[in-house]
C-alpha cells in the first residue's frame, strides 16, 4: 500500500521539481524554496555532489505520510543509474527513484523494497519492457524531443502506460501536457536557473507558485 500511496500523492501533486545544484547545501536550499512555493514532490538528482546527504537532510525535515501537515513533501532521488545507487538513495530516505533509462536491476531492486521507480523511456519497446518488469510510471525523457501528442499516440496501443514527461516542460506547454494525459510533469532548470544566475533563492518560490497555479488551472480545464 505504501508504494501506491506514494504514486497517488505524486499524481495529485502533479509537478515534480527536479533539483540539481553545485553542492548538497545548494540543492537543499533550492528544494526548500520549491516546497515553500507549493511544489510538494522533490527529486534530488545524484549528479549533485553530496546528493545523498541532501536527500537525508530533506527526508528528515519533510514527511509525506500526512499531506495536510505543514512539513509535507515527498523527497526522491533522480539520475539513478544502477541498483546499488538506488539502494543507497533508499537508505538515505528517498521515497521514490527516478532514472534516465530503463535498467532491469534498478527496477527489480525498487520492486523488492516496494519503492516507486520511474525509469526513463523513449520507445514503445522500452515501454513494453518496463511494463513487463512491473513499472507503474515511466519518465518520458527527454521530453523536449516530443510534443504532448506523444501521450495519446502511445495510449492507442498501450492505454495502461503512465507517462511523466521531463525535460522541456515549461509554463507555456504544461497545460498541453496535462490535457494530453500526463501522469505528472517533471520541471528542471526552468524552475531554478534565474535563482542561480541572480543569486536569489526566493525566485524559486516565485516560479514554483506559477507552476502549481498552472497545473491547477490545467486540471480544472481553465
From TrEMBL:
Domain of life: Bacteria
Cleaved signal peptide residues: none
Record EC number: 4.1.2.14, 4.1.3.16
One Pfam match: Aldolase
Keywords: Carbohydrate metabolism, Lyase
GO molecular function: (R,S)-4-hydroxy-2-oxoglutarate aldolase activity; 2-dehydro-3-deoxy-phosphogluconate aldolase activity
Protein's pathway: Carbohydrate acid metabolism
Quaternary data: Homotrimer.
PANTHER family, A to Z: 2-DEHYDRO-3-DEOXY-6-PHOSPHOGALACTONATE ALDOLASE-RELATED (PTHR30246:SF1), 2-KETO-3-DEOXY-6-PHOSPHOGLUCONATE ALDOLASE (PTHR30246)
Family: Belongs to the KHG/KDPG aldolase family.
Annotated protein name in UniProt: Bifunctional 2-keto-4-hydroxyglutarate aldolase/2-keto-3-deoxy-6-phosphogluconate aldolase
Organism: Paenibacillus solisilvae
